């Protein structure tokens, strides 16, 4: 169950239904099924998003992948969840229902960081709100069971991934059970689902019962309490994993040592000492790990004890490397009703050849025709962009990529990416020669990996770049530079922009890359994410200090000047992240003023399930280190007024925030920052209409904010003071309401 070998996606014998060929779009109605000659679907996928047949949308990607395996796949997109009727529209699936909330967690999609309902939904035609329920995976699963109770139920997507064990839920402010007992699903597929999904489909097609599929990586399920697959398996308490010391300091399993085997001896006898070879010792070590299940504290215990919750979170993340992760189990319930959630190790990452296969499937690269002329903001944003990789080894504690896509980078080949550029040029309506992005979770981790596969498979670091860049990490930007040059040289391509967030601490290691980027691929503004200026919050985020930012800015300005271009950096910041004090926010405010930045949109920290920063938020403990009752505490900003204050520090130039800031500065003993001079942050008077009497000459001393730029709202984008409006290319749409994935 813990073997690292993986069966290639393209090695399966295709299911008999391959004879029906490729559908122009996966069917969403019985009429479309009739046109294709289908009497039934083998698999029906349910999603909270509109169906857009493009590899950037999860249901299209897995749907086309299953179709390529020979299965008939139908889509039920954004069903009416108030009854089971809409879940019957395609009939009964022959093999299973696949249930997801969509590309985003339904709660993050519907609510702001202040728990207010959003007014629009970027993944819905015409951005209509209220087209998906709260906790969509649970609701859809219940309705699918009502429709066809005997059909196996498989859940997945980021919503299911982030809720596979007991987790703190920000929206209800409590620890909730795993999503498995809530949804009553037969199987949960977490992370990158391709391998497990294809294997499940073929095994069910051969007649295997879904309750017997217990050996697949990347899957979770419910079992009787204490269940083990066989006599060779043992349990180990999670306290054996959470040991004192540095996360990455572990015994070398490749070292050769003597193992003494002593038997009972009489007088004059000699004890036998057997020398164990390196290969034998390594085999014993791997065999023991492969059949060890780590028992986390039960749901009831982590619900009631914050220290145990933080400990469980730390253990979960330590067991996340596909090369050495072990099975995790967690009890839910008490007495006779107790059952275990069983988590197999994470999936083996896809190879470059497999990534090329997945992204090279025959996508229509358009929304389903049933939407007519409706505008879908998420589609408008990515229609001219290309995903070149998956995963992120940054390990930012507030980001969900670690828990979902993993830390190992999975890259497509250069040839595959260039073919997609040509497909966009030749097949996408409205294309005028501008590619809006070539990137992924981060823009510049393409083809980066550990220099030694053995080290990679045994590593237990939570980040490859914090507190410093690992000496074993290959940070070569040459493959990315080559890709940029070849892509922009293609006929019909006028401009290629980089819209993904940039990891600047990596970029500064390659001046050639920064020059290439700045000279050819910046459309006036470039997004980067310092997140904060102070060490306290940065250490809890696992982000680099401002030194790396300053080095990158110097290079950015230098190469922009050499290229004869006026370009700006757009830094992102997070307010009220765990570990942030009022003084930290004041220092960040002073840095912003000194650096000439005025922020447009701001948003406070949003605790998402399973993230390490969420564990800090809930427990006020630091799971980056060994967790005990008296271990390091973490400052947490919970109250609405203080969260509002931290946001106000980021928008110090907005007169609406001045009354709150004056009160805070006086309480902090920093009234010296209130006044009319350039050295002051805010004036002592208030403009008319903002809650306080106006000064005799209203407006004097206030410098007008620069024009707003609509950007991602997961963190606050900054805008240079008195800079011109964003020089957005006319063919590049504005960013819809989306969420940045760290970086």
Radius of gyration: 27 Å
CATH superfamily heading of one domain? Response regulator
Count of DSSP-assigned helices: 24
Query: Structural class from helices and strands?
Result: alpha/beta
**Strand element count:** 26
Can you tell me the CATH architecture of one domain? 3-Layer(aba) Sandwich
Q: What fraction of residues sit in β-strands?
A: 5-15%
| Widest sheet: strand ordering | 3-1-4-5-8-9-15-14-13-10
Overall form:
globular
What is the first-to-last residue Cα distance? 32 Å
CATH class of one domain: Alpha Beta
Please give the largest β-sheet: 10 strands, mixed
Low-pLDDT regions: 244-267, 695-743
Estimate the helix proportion, in percent.
25-40%
Q: Please tell me the overall pLDDT.
A: 88
CATH fold assignment of one domain: Rossmann fold
3D structure, described in words:
It is a single chain. Strand 14 (327-332) and strand 15 (339-343) form a beta hairpin. Strands 3-1-4-5-8-9-15-14-13-10 form a ten-stranded mixed sheet, sandwiched between helices. Strands 23-24-26-25 form a four-stranded mixed sheet. Strands 2-16 form a two-stranded antiparallel ribbon. By secondary structure, it is of the alpha/beta class. Among the domains are: 13-215, Response regulator (Rossmann fold, 3-Layer(aba) Sandwich); 219-260 and 271-346, no CATH class. It contains 24 helices and 26 strands.
